[in-house]
Design goal:
Cofactor: pyridoxal 5'-phosphate
Family: Belongs to the kynureninase family.
Strand content: 5-15%
Modified residues (N6-(pyridoxal phosphate)lysine): 221
Bound molecules: pyridoxal-5'-phosphate
Binding site for pyridoxal 5'-phosphate: 96-97, 125-128, 166, 195, 198, 220, 250, 276
Number of helices: 13
Order of helices and strands: HEEEHHHEHEHEEHEHEEHHEEHEEEHH
CATH class of the largest domain: Alpha Beta
Number of domains: 2
Helix content: 25-40%
Radius of gyration: 22 Å
Shape: globular
EC number: 3.7.1.3
Length: 417
């Protein structure tokens, strides 16, 4: 595929008009929407209105008149169909790490001390495993980390309380079969907690169909809510009223404005709210969800998934063809692939420096340390196209074959990688 072929495919793409809803800098090929989604054009004026009109003029009245107080539920209801959940089951609040803490505690409580082992993957995003370490300490339990997904089934035994997995692995882009693993966990008497950070807005999700127990996910990746946008949390309705999530703040109370001295949990997912919502951050996420409404009219998640798979497949092919020594770490089997492609480079090639050299040329992906080191490229079907695939593959090939990465301005490291 060359740039002409790519431009033809982009011109025929039924989702092409969605790219126009985003601000993308001239000359930049942005392939890091799995880390920080791009800015919807409607977001700056909408946040400005929230600041100047709702806050500036409306002051405290805006909790009611601008609907600030309902943002966590309103956004949850709008996200629900993208998660295979129903309105009233999803809440938007806090960060992914904090929501994981809440649901993991709740899941262990449901096991009533009969089972205390949490099973996850060593390659899970570190914050998930760090949070799990704290939660198992509090419950006198144990976190067991497997090296590969194939090691999971033997650990689903009478000691296993919770299977905690990230649906799409942040490094490899490998996607788990949520329904199958949830079923295996349930057959063993364990509960299933799913992190949808790299799934929501990019791949089809069916939480109710899978009969999962709890789920959380991120608002600033494929959902484009903006840096630090709040996270979402879901609990299967069968668990409503069965447990207390541990962060028992006033807005998770059944009647917060009674200012009662005794905590009484709100029913259902509402209890997962802790304190006051971050209104400006929520407003960013709410505006980003308008783009998903537009995507819904053009075929919804099915159309997004088809495009995402076509983009990642084209990129895998282009990298294999053009980049000497590249070892693809992402499954070629579409059913096992999220919306990103990662690959390693031969020993002696500094992947970090390659990424810095790429960024200097306007191609933005990211680098993930570890063994192997990986270059990672996220394909956001809302705004990426086939021309992005070709531009990125050509630039990587040139940097690797000419070794132009081997220069001091590319090899020295900054704080956020
Ligand atoms: C991005 C990501 C997070 C982010 O957590 P924060 O609390 O928002 O920093 C958590 N888990 C996974 C799997 C992620 O990919």
């Amino acid at each position: 595929m060359n740039l002409d072929d790519a431009n033809r495919l982009d011109a025929a793409d039924p989702l092409r008009s969605l790219r126009e809803l985003f601000t993308l800098p001239e000359g930049v090929t942005y392939l890091d929407g799995n880390s920080l989604g791009a800015l919807p054009k409607a977001t700056p004026p909408r946040i400005a209105k929230a600041v100047e009109v709702e806050w500036g003029q409306g002051l405290i009245k805006s909790w009611n008149t601008a609907g600030w107080i309902d943002l966590p539920q309103r956004l949850g209801d709008r996200l629900a169909p993208w998660l295979g959940a129903r309105p009233g089951e999803v809440l938007v609040a806090d960060s992914t790490s904090v929501n994981l803490y809440k649901v993991l505690h709740a899941a262990l409580q449901l096991q009533q001390g009969q089972r205390r082992v949490v099973v996850s993957e060593r390659s899970n995003f570190p914050t998930d495993n760090y949070i799990a370490q704290s939660v198992v300490r509090a419950h006198g339990g144990e976190l067991i980390l497997v090296e590969t997904p194939e090691d999971i089934p033997p650990l689903l035994d009478e000691r296993c309380a919770v299977l905690m997995l990230t649906h799409v692995n942040y490094r490899s882009g490998r996607m788990h079969d949520m329904a199958l693993l949830t079923r295996w966990a349930h057959q063993a008497g364990a509960l299933a907690v799913w992190d949808l950070a790299h799934s929501a807005g990019a791949v089809p999700i069916d939480l109710l169909g899978a009969a999962a127990d709890f789920a959380i996910g991120c608002g600033y990746k494929y959902l484009n809510g903006g840096p630090g946008a709040p996270s979402f949390v879901w609990m299967h309705p069968r668990h409503a009223g069965q447990v207390w999530q541990p962060l028992t703040g006033w807005l998770g109370h059944a009647n917060p404005f009674d200012f009662d001295s005794e905590y009484q949990p709100a029913p259902g997912i509402q209890q997962y709210q802790c304190g006051t919502p971050a209104v400006l951050a929520m407003t960013g996420l709410e505006t980003a969800l308008d783009v998903f409404d537009a995507a819904q009219k053009l075929g919804g998640i099915k159309a997004l998934r088809n495009k995402s798979l076509a983009l990642t497949e084209a990129f895998i092919g282009a990298v294999e063809e053009r980049v000497p020594g590249a070892v693809i770490a992402t499954p070629r089997d579409a059913a096992m692939r999220g919306s990103q492609v990662s690959f390693g480079l031969p020993r002696g090639t500094d992947g970090y420096a390659v990424m810095q050299a790429l960024i200097a040329r306007g191609v933005i992906g990211d680098f993930r340390a570890g063994d192997p080191e990986l270059l990672r490229f996220g394909f956001a079907p809302l705004y990426n196209g086939f021309a992005d695939v070709v531009r990125a593959a050509d630039a990587i090939a040139d940097i690797v074959t000419t070794k132009s990465w081997d220069a001091p301005e590319f090899t020295s490291r900054s704080k956020v990688t």
